[in-house]
Amino acid sequence: MSEKTAINRSRPARDIFGYRKYWAHKFTPAPFLPMSREEMDDLGWDSCDIIIVTGDAYVDQASFGMAIIGRLLEAQGFRVGIIAQPRWQNTEDFLQLGRPNLFFGVTAGNMDSMVNRYTSDRKIRSDDAYTPHGEGGKRPDRASLVYSQRCKEACKGVPVVIGGIEASLRRIAHYDYWQDKVRHSALVDSKADILLYGNAERAIVEIAHRLAAGENIREIRNLRGTAVLLNTLPSDYTYIDSRDVEAPGPAHAKPNPYASTPAPPPMSESAQAPLVTLHTRPRQLDRERTAVLLPSHEQVKRDPVLYAHASRILHLESNPGNARALVQQHGRRWLWVNPPPVPLTTRELDRVYELPYQRRPHPAYGDARIPAYEMIRFSINIMRGCFGGCTFCSITEHEGRIIQNRSEKSILKEIEAIRDNVPGFTGNISDLGGPTANMWRLHCKDPKIEASCRRLSCVYPGICKNMKTDQMPLVHLYRKARAIPGIKRIFIASGLRYDLAVETPEYVRELVTHHVGGYLKIAPEHTEKSPLSHMMKPGIGTYDRFKAMFEKYSRAAGKEQYLIPYFIAAHPGTTDEDMLNLALWLKRNGFRADQVQAYLPSPMALATAMWHTGYNPLKKVTRSGKTVFSPRGMKQRRLHKAFLRYHDANNWPLLREALKKMGRADLIGNGKQHLVPAWQPRGTGEQHKETKSRPFRTKHVRRSGKKPSRQRRGLGKRR
Description:
By secondary structure, the chain is of the alpha/beta class. Among the domains are: 1-226, 3-Layer(aba) Sandwich (Rossmann fold); 232-331, no CATH class. It contains 24 helices and 23 strands.
């Protein structure tokens, strides 16, 4: 990275539609991006310039990542093909469109492949909403890694670019819940040439044009929103150790791997750390020419404090206005993570959503039902990003905290397009939203403050005084959308930030009067202070305030409507007493949850760092700091879920046992004041009798063919 290629934050980002089109733009846009050689022949193509490999079925609609990236690259003049859900056991399916002229683009799909396939208890799911007929097992575990390796095998020498939410959330060394260990960056394990994180439109367009101009993929090292592997670090950067930014305390006499000494200690068993010159006064340095050295993969793997510290630094360096490059050593190579991408402007985002999508699945699927498409085919994305910063959620890590808005004109135009073109439309729009329902056009009052801010949330512990919270523009959008001829109802199904909603009572009135179909889902997540503080969620008092508004405006509209609250069990910072208090709150308020959600540690989330390390990265991480309790044992996780379903007779034996141990046997009985009855219906509760408490992934391995002794089996001595 020479000085002339350094990132210039003072210069506006280049318009993604401002590039000179590639020569292949003379071909008309494809009705659907081709999935076979026959379709390529019909289009007059002899080859594809770019081939996108995805773990989802190909749906040509702007809620599906492969459609957005494919249509955007097509608009740049490139010929783009799609390989959807290929068989990964060999390379045959990866050759079905031939060899791409420029590169393979690889994504696991709209969901992380592990979250898609496994429950929070590591059980295999039987279905996959992004597959025809909802059939499970059509993508491999860690699909980004497998697909990338198969592309390398199928077409040697062709660059491979990985992206999507799976790669994005695994861009540095990360804790993997399913293997219960810290893994390398996905870039290392996938063998790809470059990793794109976040919404990758800017990066993918520039990469395509630079490769088309003859540039080598290995020369693209300075691009925002990307991560690359380097053998040596650039000499024209100043490097600071992340522990100089926030010192986590002595590492139990472990040597500093970045120290400039004649004989640095080894970073791993097989590699010795390269030398770099560190600067110890980071606040006086030019951010554009500064990189932050995170603890290495080997260090965060063996030291929980350094893992939590690295997680905190990563999140603090996530604002595109002030973020610095991050560097993390993996073996003998350096992972270089460039600063986050500059958010798209409203004009750019409008054009992305107005590309010539067919708004339905590829004809190759025939009449097969794709559940994810059925869910969103009449919905519209009006924005991207979320400044809530909930620690269990991956939206902020992927899309960023700065809201990217579509224009009112573009949104209304899409409603008309759905009305006129989408088969089966009956006049009802299922959602106007995005990551959240009501952050459209909300932003910091001062761009300079926004560019320099390092807060992890704009709404916790309270709404920032610099945050614009007026939601009247959204009210006006709703009214104009309802007035479009042929539109009967418009529902709001995206997650509602009720702490923001109560700041504009007129918005709540409009929502309740016109956009709720009897039930409104809302996510207070918990009632108790400890879990809420570790989630960065508002207190239950804010929920009560919103509930009062909801009921008031429902009565005024003459409607009988209900709130459906969602809660999380077994989140870091949650004790048995917290779950008991939540259960009592649910009973007092007459709620009976049909389905409950147990916390799942997704890669790179702040709550995952708490769950894995026991330290809280919301604050400066120190070895003497207060630790975070996480419910890790299977029995305890079942207990926390059982508290949410206190009314289910199958849970009563487990709850009775727990209540007695907690000294709350007074809650067992047959009165209204009791949580669970003293009697048990015949044929229920049997599955909990033999439940044993043990941590996840504990395996009892028999070392020999001999049967364990009675004492080892816990049966006591022979009598």
